Amino acid sequence: MRKTSLFSIAAVVVCAFVVLVSCAPKKTASGAVMIKGADSFIAGEVTDTGGIDDRSFNASAWKGLQNAQANLGVQVQYLGSANQSDYAPNIQQFVTKKANIIVTVGFLMGDDTAKAAKDNPNQKFAIVDYAYDPALPNVLALTYQTDQAAFLAGYLAAGMSKTGKVGSFGGMNIPTVTIFMNGFAAGVRYYDQKNKAKVQVLGWDSDKAAGTFTNDFTNQAKGKTVTDALINQGADVVLPVAGSVGLGAAAAVQQHNQASPDKPVYLIWVDTDGYISAPQYGSLLLTSVMKGIGASVEEATTEALKGTFKGGNYSGTLANKGVDIAPYHDYDSKIPAQLKADIETIKAGIIAGSISVDPKSYPKP
Amino acid sequence: MSGNVTPAPEKAPRRPFLRRALDAIVSGNAFTVTFLAFVSALILGAIIIILATPSAIRAWQDFGYAPGEALRQSWRAVANAYGSLFLGSIGSPRAIIDAIRSGDGASVVAAFIPLSETLVSTTPLMMAGLGIALAFRAGLFDIGGQGQLVLGAIGATIAGFSFPSLPAVIHVPLAILSGAAFGAAWGFIPGVLKARTGAHEVITSMMLNYVGMNLLTWLLTTGLVQAPPRNQAISKVVVAAARLPSITGSSLRANLGIVLAVLLVLGVGWLLNRSTLGFRFRMLGANRDAARVAGVQIERHFTIAMTLAGMLVGLGGAFMVLGVDFRLSPLYSGSIGFDGITVAILGRGTPLGVGLSALLFGAFTAGGRTMQVNTSIPLQLVQVLQAVLVLFVAAPGVIRTIYRIRLTKAGGRVFGGWAG
C-alpha cells in the first residue's frame, strides 16, 4: 500500500516534469543588428513592493527593459522588493554585479538610489517617478507631466458626456496620482469655458485637493464600489487612477452598460493603452492617458549602451511624446469630428504653451 | 500528547483537526524530522531550479542524444543557484580572508555585506517568531503579527521623530519602549477579548491586522506623522539620536537590533523554562482544564501571554524602523508578520528553535537576492523552499513515510489549537 502510493507520487512528479520540459519554449533569435558590447551589457531593475506584474509603473519599466532586450540584445534582470528594507541591498546587488544601468522604480526608492549613486559615481542609474534637486550627474530621473495628456482626456470626456457629469477617483492622494486628476479637471473646465457648458467633475475637487481614494492599488472590489457610486451620482465617463483597481472600475461600468444599454458609461484608462493592456474591457474605453515609462526606460538603456547616457532630470511631455492619449480605437467613428479636431488644436496649444493645464487657471464651475 | 497520562491516541476523545496537527508537529524525532525536511526541501528546490533554467531545459529536450549533457547542465544550474544563495547570505570565505589579510577597510566592509544583510533580515523575523511562539506555548494562535509589527514600527517612529534634542542614551530606549508599548496594545486587545468574552484570538488578531495596516495608511496622511511638504505617503524621519547604532561602526547595516533580539530570545527562554509565569503559560498550553484545576487564572494569563506576544512582535517592527529604514511607508511590514508564524512553527515553539529558524530565513532572504541576480531564478524560489520546509515540518508523517522512520515515544505538546 505504502509502496504503491509512493510509486504513484513519483510517477506524477516525473510526468509533470516531462510535460513541463516539453512545453518549454525554444529560444527565438532576434533579428536586430547588435550594437557592440550589447551581449555583455546588463540592465537591472529594482522593483517597488508592487512587483513586476503590477500593471503599473513597475510593469511599464520592465516592459521597457524587455523591449531593450528584444531590440538591442542586452541582458535584463529584475529584483523584487518585499518591503522598504529591501531597496538598499537590492540596489547593492546590481552594483556588485556591475550592471551597466540600474533602473529603480518609485519615489520611495529616491533616497536609497541617491545614496548608491553618490557612493558609486561611475554607476549609471535611472529612477522612475522621482526628480532630484539638484540633479545628480549619474542618475536620469524620469518624471511625467501626465496632466497635459489628462487635460485632453478631460476635454474629450466633457464632450462625450450626456449627463453633464464625469467622475474620477485615485488610488492614493499622492502627486503622481492627483496630477492625472488635476489635468482631467482642468480639461473639463476648459471645455465648459469654451463651449459655455456646465460639466461637473465628481470624485475630485482640485481646489481643495481632496476627493475619492481607494487607498489601495490592488483591491478591485473597492474600485467597483467606488465606480458604482460615481455612476449612481450620474457620472457617465469615469477615469480611475489606481493601478489594477481600475479593473474593478471597468467591471462596474460593464455591468452597468449591460443592465442599461441606452445610457452607456465610458471609461478612460491610465498609464498604458488599456485597449491593449486590458483588452477584455476595450469596448468601454474612450481613450487612455498614457505615460511613456517603458519608452523612456528603453531610451535610457539605449543611451547607456551607446555611451551617450547623461544624468539629470527628464520630464515627459506632449511635446517629447513622453505622455499622450491613446488612439480612440472602437470609438474612432463615434466621436464627433469637431471634438477630435478641437483636441488636436488643444494639443498644439499645450505644446506651444498657450493653454494652461492647471485647473486654477479656469473659472470654477 | 504527554504520554503516560493520556490513553492511546486511537482511544482519545475526538479533537479538532488543527489541534491534532499541531500535536503531530511537536511529537517525536524532532531533530531528525527537521533535518530531513530541510534536505527534502532542497531536493524539491533543485527540481524547481532545473525547471526554471532554460539551458538545462534545452539539455533535457535532447536527453535522448546526450543524457550526460542534461545531467551536467542540471547539476550546474543547481550548484550555481545554491552557491549564490550561500554567497549572498554568508559571503565568499576567500574574499573575507583576503580582505582581512589586505587590511583595506573598504574591502573588509564589502566582504561582510552578505553576513550583515542576513542579520538585518533576521532581526524582525526573530522577534515576530519569538512573540508568536510564546503565544503558541500558552496555547494561543497569534495570527496578528502583521498588525503588531506595524504598530510597533509606528510607536517607535513617532517617538523617534518627536523629540529632536534628546541624547541618544535616553532617546534610543524611549523609542524602543514606545514601539514595545504600541505592539503590546495590539496584543492586549485580542487577549482581553478572549479572556472577557471568549472571542477567538485567531479571528480577532487577524482582523486587527487590517485595522493596524489601515491605521498606518491613515496616519501617513495626517500632519502628525506625514513628512512635509505632505505630498507623499511617507512619515517624518527618525532623528539620528534615536537610531540603533551599528555594531561594526562601519557602513554595514547590521545594528544593535540583532543583539537585542538575541538577548530577548535568551530572556524568553528563561521566562518559559525557569519562571513561574512561564510554567503557567506552559500549563495553559499543555492542558487548559488541568491548569484551571491547578488554580491558574487562565483568563488573566491569556491576556498576559497575548500582550507579551504583541510586545515582542512590535519590537521587531521597532528594530526595523530604528535600525535600517528610519521612516514608514504604506504596506510597511511586507509579509514579516506572517513569516513569523512559519518561523515559530519551524522552530517548534522553542526560543532557541525560533532563533535558528529566523537566522535560516534571514539567510534565505539575503541570499535569494544574489541568487536571482546571478542565475535569474526568481526570488520566489526562496519562498517555495521556506513553504515546503514548513510543510514537511508541520506534516512529519510525510517525512517519516518517505524516509521510513519509526515513530518514537511522543514528546510533550507545545501548541494548543482551535479547541479553546
Task: Tell me what you see in this structure.
The complex is a heterodimer of chains A (365) and B (420). Chain A is of the alpha/beta class and 365 residues long. Chain A has 11 helices and 14 strands. In chain A, strands 2-1-3-4-5-13 form a 6-stranded parallel sheet, sandwiched between helices. In chain A, strands 7-6-10-11-12-14 form a 6-stranded mixed sheet, with helices on both faces. In chain A, a hairpin with a 4-residue loop joins β8 (204-205) and β9 (210-211). Chain A is elongated and about 60 Å long. By secondary structure, chain B is an all-alpha fold. The relative contact order of chain B is 0.20. The interface between A and B is large, with 35 and 43 residues.
How are the elements arranged and paired?
The complex is a heterodimer of chains A (365) and B (420).
Chain A: H1 2-23, E1 42-46, H2 57-72, E2 75-79, H3 87-96, E3 101-105, H4 110-119, E4 125-128, E5 139-144, H5 146-160, E6 165-170, H6 175-195, E7 200-202, E8 204-205, E9 210-211, H7 220-232, E10 237-241, H8 245-259, E11 266-271, H9 274-277, E12 285-291, H10 293-306, E13 312-316, E14 323-325, H11 337-352
Chain B: H1 17-26, H2 30-51, H3 54-61, H4 67-89, H5 93-102, H6 105-137, H7 145-162, H8 168-197, H9 201-219, H10 256-274, H11 276-286, H12 288-293, H13 298-325, H14 336-346, H15 351-375, H16 380-394, H17 396-403
State the largest interface.
A-B, 35 and 43 residues
Report the mean per-residue pLDDT of chain A as an integer. 88
Rg of chain A, Å, rounded:
23 Å
Helix run count of chain B: 17
Order the strands across the largest sheet of chain A as they lie in space.
Answer: 2-1-3-4-5-13
The total count of strands of chain A amounts to 14
CA-based shape of chain A: elongated
Structural class assignment of chain B: mainly alpha
Separation of the first and last Cα atoms of chain B: 16 Å
β-strand percent of chain B reads under 5%
Q: List the total number of helices of chain A.
A: 11
Overall residue-averaged pLDDT value of chain B: 87
Q: End-to-end span of chain A in angstroms?
A: 79 Å
Q: Measured on Cα atoms, how large is the radius of gyration of chain B?
A: 23 Å
Stretches with pLDDT under 50, minimum 5 residues of chain A? 21-30
Low-confidence stretches of chain B: 1-9, 409-420
Relative helix content of chain B: over 70%
List how many beta strands of chain B DSSP finds.
0
- Main beta sheet of chain B: none
Structural class of chain A: alpha/beta
Largest sheet of chain A: 6 strands, parallel
